[in-house]
Amino acid sequence: xxxxxxxxxxxxxxxxxxxxxxxxxxxxxxxxxxxxxxxxxxxxxxxxxxxxxxxxxxxxxxxxxxxxxxxxxxxxxxxxxxxxxxxxxxxxxxxxxxxxxxxxxxxxxxxxxxxxxxxxxxxxxxxxxxxxxxxxxxxxxxxxxxxxxxxxxxxxxxxxxxxxxxxxxxxxxxxxxxxxxxxxxxxxxxxxxxxxxxxxxxxxxxxxxxxxxxxxxxxxxxxxxxxxxxxxxxxxxxxxxxxxxxxxxxxxxxxxxxxxxxxxxxxxxxxxxxxxxxxxxxxxxxxxxxxxxxxxxxxxxxxxxxxxxxxxxxxxxxxxxxxxxxxxxxxxxxxxxxxx
Length: 340
Ligand SMILES: Nc1ncnc2c1ncn2[C@@H]1O[C@H](COP(=O)(O)OP(=O)(O)OP(=O)(O)O)[C@@H](O)[C@H]1O
Prior knowledge:
By secondary structure, this protein is an alpha/beta fold. 36% of the residues lie in helices and 31% in strands.
């Protein structure tokens, strides 16, 4: 079966007054139907440009973008318009029409698609129920909280029954509790309506919470892609490590004592492993920092432990962890490591 979104050698160059700027460089990517696909990267990496190529808001300068096997570059304007109705999009700043009430905001794309007013209204009411805002139909965006505005934007994006929903930093302007609620709604939409979701974010918590697949973009290139579990447990590139492991844990000042980084890759749970090591090896360790994640009920991430000064004890403890398939790396200086 064709992937629902496929990029084949996609590049995008912007021609600016300072000369050409290549925002995307030979991207190859496949998103399968039903995925919640996270695109992560530092600011300016090219995430928005990549996602805007999915609905041809940005037209690649090279390569092909295929939706369900059909090349967008070969479509005429009418076909492209129809195709775009199958791709909804939500944004960080919601992009609602401030002078229209909630119901009319949701009806807007339906009006453009030529749906009869009464039918549009009915569909908008259904959507309001799905996003949990039936009581706000007559409110104006200015009367809503950020989370409620994003719910309206989601309802509007779903109005034309899209197969794909693109989310460009959709939770970046929201507090953590509201973010969780919006992510739960997105997951529900993914599962109930089988809508493929593509999420751009700089927040790892968002990816951990709902994405099953991840792509990491750096300076216009796709540097890593795979299941969220794989990318989080074994980030390969420097940029992926930087994104996955928080900076504090990476830049530990060592200052003479012996430290190790213990990496959990989903094969063990943290509590028993460390507790058993302390009991069995009779060592004292200090946990200097931890950046642990729980993905699909398994422990991923890293922890920096200060080991006992006596070499034998420290070696014993390290050996104990390694025997349990836990990766232990010695932290030599400023976060540099040597794997045991
Ligand atoms: N229309 C444009 N004209 C010129 N340069 C552009 C244009 N759109 C984007 N760029 C440049 O392309 C690069 C990638 O931008 P893009 O918005 O895709 O990055 P991003 O990863 O989404 O970053 P952010 O998280 O900061 O939005 C940036 O350097 C940006 O300045």
